[in-house]
Amino acid sequence: MHMLSDWLPKKSALSRTRLLVAPDGSQYHWKQVTNWGSTSLRLIDPETQETVAQVRSARTGGGFLGKPRRMSLHVRSDTALSLDAILLSFIVLEQARREQGAGSYSDARGAAGAGMAGPSVTF
């Protein structure tokens, strides 16, 4: 069994950023971003600082928050990184986060597993 830290290591011990090494050797950073109490996850190309992919969290809706929505992963169509690498790394991070009781992505230490359901993917 592989651990999350084996495949998507933290940038440093106290960092909230996880590193994704692409098949060609280039590195990308999964960064947890919190705005107005809502946490999202972004895959950043450190050379250009551009967002390659972004996760929109699920929302239960109601009140001023608007309509409910499912979790979704949005990927730039012009990215050089393979969709397989982006999707698999996101699934591993999300599964580990759920195993930790829906905490933050940076705190997730669980095993790299499959079998999660829920998010949709657009690109």
TrEMBL record:
Region called Disordered, residue ranges: 103-123
A Pfam cross-reference name: DUF6593
Source organism superkingdom: Eukaryota
Domain DUF6593, first and last residues per copy: 3-99
InterPro entries: DUF6593
Protein name per Swiss-Prot or TrEMBL: DUF6593 domain-containing protein
